[in-house]
Task: structure prediction
Amino acid sequence: MRRAAVAVAAGAMAVSLAACGSAEEAGGGKDSTASAAKGDDIKVGLLLPENQTARYEKFDRPLIEEKIKELTNGKATVDYNNAKQDANLQAQQVDTMITNKVDVLILDAVDAKAIKNSVQKAVDAGIKVVAYDRLAEGPISAYTSFDNVSVGKTQGEALLKALGDKAKDGQIVMMNGSVTDPNAAQFKEGAHAALDGKVKVGKEYDTKEWKPENANANMEAAISALGKDKIVGVYSANDGMAGGIITALKAAGIDVPVTGQDAELAAVQRIVAGEQYMSVYKPYAPEAEAAAEMAVALAQGKSLDSIAKDKVDSGSAKGVPSVLVPVTSLTKDNINDTVIKDGVYTAAEICTGKYKAACDKAGVK
Result:
């Protein structure tokens, strides 16, 4: 347990937990119809959803590739592509992976429902699919993510703590993520569970494609509709949108607590400077490593029993072997014990230029 960190146990699952169901039922166990088990010389497909959020290229991809290399004595190859927030492009990329005859596919869906047919095509071609970070529809064999409902609850509870007595009289704006992302619905569910009945939601938006510029436009509309003196805080589902929101707030002369998620470098700097109240730190290494471990095991015809201790249900699959990773509320008080301690950033990376004095004051080192 990190000192001074607020750890969130993966108790309230982001998706409904299945009380029963074997790995074989979800495609996670040994496949008797498969050809002879493969060794380390496997081909893994990796499809990530977008490059708007810094995490995918900076953390997820290299962590997954490194773990696959480690697990296969450097013999595996990884075919990689990024859909750049385009669901149609991602469907084409799945087709390419099928053509390239990958042995297993790690898939972070742009649109979890729209990708269902592509998942089915991959499975029909003998390729098992690991849903990564987002619970894709279709006959997936495994899934890893964070406890997404708890992410939203963590954000909501942090915002209430920051508001204090102001929660009784003021209004907040809720800036949720994209409706095409099932995680966004779970973040929203968790946030409402924390906030409802404790603070009034003046305006609420589902932000198209998670884009900061769309969050900025929504925030400007909320300020215009509610009045700048009525807004006491903003729930932002992630850090990228928080940046766009804070730009709009500054332009209107409003200084209120804003939440976030992903612990992006720019967000950590805003937290140090007092511009953003918190983010949700999601340790990408255990999520990425779990995806790599499950993918390699599936490609080699091995059971997932020793890797995936949870089971979840999607809208189209039951008892999917899963790994759900706990998260941490990141504030100015625990930067040293989270992103710096885990080697995500150094103090030198965070405390550049205009942030140095704030870092010194906060004890970031």
Observations:
- The chain has twelve helices and 13 strands.
